Structures are given as structure tokens and as C-alpha cells.
Amino acid sequence: MAIRYPNGKAYNTGLDKKNSGHNRRYVKPTLYGGRGMTLEEELNRSNEYYLSKNIAVIHKKPTPIQIVKVDYPKRSAATIKEAYFRKASTTDYNGVYKGRYIDFDAKETKNKTSFPLSNFHEHQVEHMKKCLDNGGICFAIIKFVILDEVYLFKASDLFYFWDKQNNGGKKSIKKDIIEELGYKINYSLNPTIPYLDAVDELIDRKGE
User: Fold this and answer.
1) Whole-number Cα distances in Å, 178 to 89, 111, 118
2) How far apart are CA 68 and CA 99, in angstroms?
3) Which of 11, 86, 110, 129 has the fewest CB atoms within 10 Å of its CB?
4) What is the 3-state secondary structure (H, E, C) of 159-206?
5) Among 32-36, 69-73, 121-125, 126-130, the least confident range
6) What is the pLDDT, as a whole number, of residue 67?
7) Structure confidence at residue 22 as a pLDDT band (50, 70, 90)
8) For residues 93-104, b (16+ Cβ closer than 10 Å) or e, as one string?
9) What is the value of pTM for the model shown?
10) What torsion, rounded to 10 degrees, do the Cα atoms 197, 180, 103, 208 define?
């Protein structure tokens, strides 16, 4: 199914097409990832776990779409062939954890040495800036698919590289920078991606 933005541009699922240090204190045994699951599926499973244990209430944001083309191969079945987003999407997830508003986006890349900033859109970055200005905790969860490594990267650090690219800076963030500034999240059994451990560190640092 083809899904497009309001301006007609095709929707990119987050996987870039090209070649498609100091980690924080995560010492849990390293497990393999979701065995073929996408980052979104891994996060959804993790959020279900957090919700079932009454740890946090965090959900994927629904994005309303306008259906423009439907095929009816059978009377009892309909297949959506083309649709448009009714409005530009913001970030993927939001919710509440320890009385704090959480807002973040999830991105995947097949690049092994850097993360292309083209995975983000201007309106997503602007949304995170507004959330951060109003006291929210904002970040990106980035997965290097081939390496099966996941990192939490603070929104404030993302803004630095995002703004810098518009002034002659690079169009990507080197992986070693993400390793140095971000928080590596090792896979676990439950939750699959224990990203709230890293959020705890963000909360602690904000309170310093």
C-alpha cells in the first residue's frame, strides 16, 4: 500500500536506502534482538510489558489517513491501494512515566557507521523542540539494524547536529558519537528493549 504525506511525497518507513566511546551503565547480559521484528514491533512489545506492570503508559500515536484508492477483489474483502496522511505526523510515541511526559521517535538504519539525519523531518524536530521547551522528556531511539544495536539519543543532542547540517555541517551523525553521547540499550527478555532504564538516567541528570 502506498501512503503519502499531504504534499504527495512518498512515506519513508525510516530505513535509509544507502548501504541498505562511552556507553552508559547497562551491564545486563546481551541478548539477540527480536529475531526479525522491526524496531516498532520491539518497542510496542516493550510498552505492553511496561503497561501490564503499571510502570508506564506509553503508546504509539495513531496517524489518521485519507484513503483514496481501494480495490475489491472479492465482495467480502477490500484492499487499500493508496492513502495519504491527513496531516504531517509528529513523533512515534508518547505517554507518562513517573509523572513526566515522554515523547520520542523510533528510527532504524542499515548503515553501520553513521545515522543519516534525513531519517527525520523538520516538523518532527520542531515538535520535539516544543515538547522539550515545555518540560517534556524527548529523545530518539535509534537502531543499527545490521549490527542489532539500539541507542537512546537525547533530543537536545539531536538538535545540535540537525541545526549544524543547515550551516555546512554533515548530513549524518557518526555512530561513535551516538555511542559517546547516547545510551546503549541491551536487549532483555522482558521488556524486549528496556529503554526506561536510560530514561531514568535522563531524569536523574535533569535533577542534578
Assistant:
1) 25, 13, 16
2) 41
3) 86
4) HHHHHHHCCCCCCEEEHHHHHHHCEEECCCCCCCCCHHHHHHHHHHHH
5) 32-36
6) 58
7) very low
8) bbbebeeeebbb
9) 0.74
10) 70
